[in-house]
């Protein structure tokens, strides 16, 4: 094994593959869904129709000369990818740029009346209002009598499996099937807990993924760790603008906290704790532009790298963040997780349900058992999860 392992970057160019289906089917479906979700004006309809025609069969188009982030995207490779098929460039790049273009089409960056209107907000709010969310919050009261370690474990698993509730995933109609065996394909949770300094003064960074039913348990986990003095400070990294359908933005954090403080019982207590923690700076929300960028975390910009380097532990949530953490490549599944995350500036834990082909750190026996039981389906079905840690 070389010191810096490598593997082919995933493209979307193989018909029948999962990445290809996302570009060819999921993206057009998302454009249609967004077009139906708001009473957009004719200009917005024309822009959405143009994106619909372009995204499945066309070539990558540049941003407008006036776009506020044109330089940023140029630095991220826009020039090199312009004019090429969406299928022939790194899949991670194509997907990220698709969401950037979608926001253009709905007028998100303005100027105009649709500036700042999140096209995915109705779905996100519906999740927060769903009866399941209320049930999950009520279940929190039942944890109170458990030993501390079991409470922490339950909240960690709530955050982990919260990643299954992802709206983009649901749009494709590929919802979670029967309970998987084994559900957890890797479990380094003991190592995760051991990374929190015993003096309770460490900083936890949590790179969030989805809003709604994933962000709520993420926040509960953070609240629990702050309340119990397991961490002294927490930093929640969210997206600077709507992305991958349900990814959390600052507005979604506000919605989730509002949902918590209006709940009953322990959930409300955690909500108040977090509200105060934000007011006194114990909990900080960050929305760095790179968080919605199309590059892997190996390419972290210097300021974000320096910031994350101060964390006792960074928890990286979800499938997309996993792809960005280990690199969106065709790794052999047994590639050591520590090798592919050696670039990351702090100790790091990945909490993710498996929703794309990328995976590392499995034992040969686990990979063989999964293949034998399910064929390739275990990689993308969202029915399996992992907790992987690199100290
Ligand atoms: O919300 P998550 O867990 O990041 O999952 C989003 C997922 O959506 C996809 O990008 C497909 O659109 C997955 O492959 C992916 O990584």
Automatic annotation (TrEMBL):
Cofactor(s) required for function per UniProt: Mn(2+)
GO molecular function, one term: metal ion binding
Reactions listed under catalytic activity: beta-D-fructose 6-phosphate = dihydroxyacetone + D-glyceraldehyde 3-phosphate; beta-D-fructose 1-phosphate + H2O = D-fructose + phosphate
InterPro entries, sorted: ARMT-1-like_metal-bd_sf (IPR036075), ARMT1 (IPR039763), ARMT1-like_metal-bd (IPR002791)
Protein name: Damage-control phosphatase ARMT1 family protein
Domain Damage-control phosphatase ARMT1-like metal-binding: 23-365
Family listed: Belongs to the damage-control phosphatase family. Sugar phosphate phosphatase III subfamily.
Entry keyword set: Hydrolase, Manganese, Metal-binding
């Amino acid at each position: 094994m070389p010191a810096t392992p490598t593997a082919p970057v995933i493209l979307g160019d193989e018909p029948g593959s999962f990445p290809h289906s996302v570009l060819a089917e999921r993206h057009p479906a998302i454009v249609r869904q967004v077009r139906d979700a708001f009473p957009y004006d004719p200009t917005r309809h024309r822009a959405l129709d143009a994106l619909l025609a372009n995204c499945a069969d066309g070539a990558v188009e540049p941003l407008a000369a006036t776009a506020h982030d044109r330089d940023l995207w140029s630095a991220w490779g826009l020039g090199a990818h312009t004019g090429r098929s969406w299928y022939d460039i790194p899949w991670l790049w194509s997907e990220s740029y698709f969401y950037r273009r979608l926001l253009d089409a709905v007028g998100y960056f303005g100027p105009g009346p649709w500036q700042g209107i999140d096209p995915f907000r109705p779905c996100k709010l519906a999740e927060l209002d769903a009866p399941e969310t209320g049930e999950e919050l009520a279940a929190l009261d039942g944890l109170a009598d458990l030993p501390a370690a079991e409470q922490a474990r339950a909240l960690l698993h709530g955050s982990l499996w919260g990643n299954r509730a992802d709206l983009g995933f649901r749009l494709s109609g590929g919802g979670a099937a029967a309970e998987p065996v084994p559900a957890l394909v890797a479990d380094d949770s003991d190592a995760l807990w051991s990374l929190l300094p015993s003096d309770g003064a460490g900083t936890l960074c949590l790179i969030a993924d989805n809003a709604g039913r994933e962000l709520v348990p993420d926040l509960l986990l953070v609240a629990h760790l702050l309340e119990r003095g397991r961490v002294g400070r927490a930093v929640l990294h969210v997206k600077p603008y709507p992305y991958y359908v349900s990814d959390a933005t600052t507005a979604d954090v506000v919605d989730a906290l509002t949902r918590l403080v209006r709940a009953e019982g322990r959930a409300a207590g955690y909500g108040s704790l977090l509200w105060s923690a934000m007011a006194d700076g114990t909990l900080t929300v960050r929305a760095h532009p790179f968080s919605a960028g199309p590059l892997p975390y190996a390419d972290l910009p210097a300021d974000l790298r320096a910031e994350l380097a101060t964390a006792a532990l960074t928890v990286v949530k979800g499938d997309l963040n996993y792809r960005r953490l280990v690199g969106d490549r065709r790794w052999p599944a047994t590639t050591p997780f520590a090798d592919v995350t050696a670039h990351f500036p702090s100790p790091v834990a990945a909490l993710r349900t498996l929703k794309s082909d990328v995976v590392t750190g499995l034992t040969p026996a686990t990979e063989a058992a999964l293949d034998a039981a399910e064929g390739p389906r275990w990689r993308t079905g969202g029915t399996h999860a992992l907790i992987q840690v690199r100290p």
